[in-house]
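so i finally got all the pieces together for this one. its two components total, 518 residues if u count the protein bits. some of the lines might not be protein, just check the labels. i wanna see the whole assembly predicted at once instead of chain by chain like last time, that was a mess tbh
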Amino acid sequence: MRHEYIDRYARLDSPVHRLPPGLKLAIALALVISTVMVPISAIPYFAACALLLLIVIFLAHLPFRFVALRLLTLEPLAGGVGILALMQHDGLLMLIRILVKSNLCLLTMIVLSNTTPFDGILGVLRSLRVPQLLVTVLALMYRYVFLLIDQSERMTRARKSRTFAPRRGGRWKTAAGIVGQLFIRSTERAERIYAAMSARGWR
Amino acid sequence: MHIPDGFLDLKTAVATGVLSAAAVGISLRRLNGSLPRKKVPLMGLAGAFVFAAQMVNFPVAGGTSGHLMGGVLVAVLLGPAAGVVVITSVLIVQCLLFADGGIVALGANVFNMGVIGSAGGYAIYRGVRLVFRNERGRYLAVVLAAWGSTVLAAVCCAGELAWSGTVPWTSAFPAMTNVHMLIAIGEAVISSLAYSAIAAARPDLVAENPRSAPVHEGRDLLLYGALITAGVVLFISPFASRWPDGLEAVAAKLGFESTAIARPLVTSPLDGYTIPGLGSPVAATVIAGLAGTCIVFAGGFLLARLLAGRSRHEA
């Protein structure tokens, strides 16, 4: 049930992981906002920011390969928008700006999400007086997202093992069938969860 | 359509953040008042459902594959307020757990995919249902809602990128719109097929019982409509003058532009979206856009009143 691609390293033990989640969230937010605001000519700022993040990655024992691969998934999007940005005067500067800023921001968020378990962040949101309903929905979502991903993968696998020569139209219908079935099972599960929560004195 | 951090400047992030916060606030308030306690777990499960459904791929041309965004499907099944909250939760989890979509850009993503993609799609759905009331009208309404809201969200996304000065509007608008007019076909077909699969297996989940429809739905749609129009005015209308009208472009090509504008049949009060006597063309465009939107908004208001009146009447 552990999914390799969801908060894989969030529960390691390191000095960075032991910091309070609220502090990490605040620092990450401040870093992202300043990276968005600082003009691209401030090269020392961007260099210092990158160096700081690399040190944190090292201290947190995050594998560099994992972080680099995760960062690479941004490049097609950044490249695409960068090419569109080239179609204006001083477009090259804008391209550099997009690449530097978006990569630094994403690196910050990768470090945050892989050093802070989600329930820690939920605790911060609760103490910040984020509406109760939203926090409850987020908590339930985090609890059940792994299960539902499992379920959808199981259904996809079952369908694949019974389909030998798929046609495109058929596959669209299959995908829609899986989505529909997933929704029905989610509502049924929600009903059971409500019964279980009530039985344990929820609210 | 997830905008990462670093693509938007701070003013765009703040503007979209304010609009999104207002929409999420309205939705939470509505749900706090009307959502039965029993349905709270369903909201969380619906978020997990959207997440898992986004991992189901279907093939598109040329070896690429697409996935559902699910905003319209959730809004049609659970209502617009639930749709906004569910999609917002999905985006928050994707941002904080996967680093997918930026944290400063969260407001823009919530606005594009949650407010336009879910509540806006629901408004289209209700509008189409007013015209086509039979059983097949439902599927048509889901198709049009999913297609229309996806395209509008893409246009708004292009407007946000252009307003940030990241990408010129003249290239962002056609690129985003053309790509998403195709992507939206997948969204429309899968949403509609999934809806009909749910209707076939559990007709009770899609029953349009007028008693279960909240009385305030018309007013809610009005508020979402106001927020969406505010977004459209802010992000799209400053560029509207650089967006050649189809007919004007054809006229220019064929060379009868000068004869065509010689004697207009009816002089438009906001001719070509500029107001005479106003110095700055950008300000004039924004004001003209605002005035135009107010007119559209008045039409929407009447439609919403009509809807609200009907649901109260039936209940």
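Residues 15-121 of chain A form one domain.
Chain A is about 75% helix and 0% strand.
anyway lmk what u think
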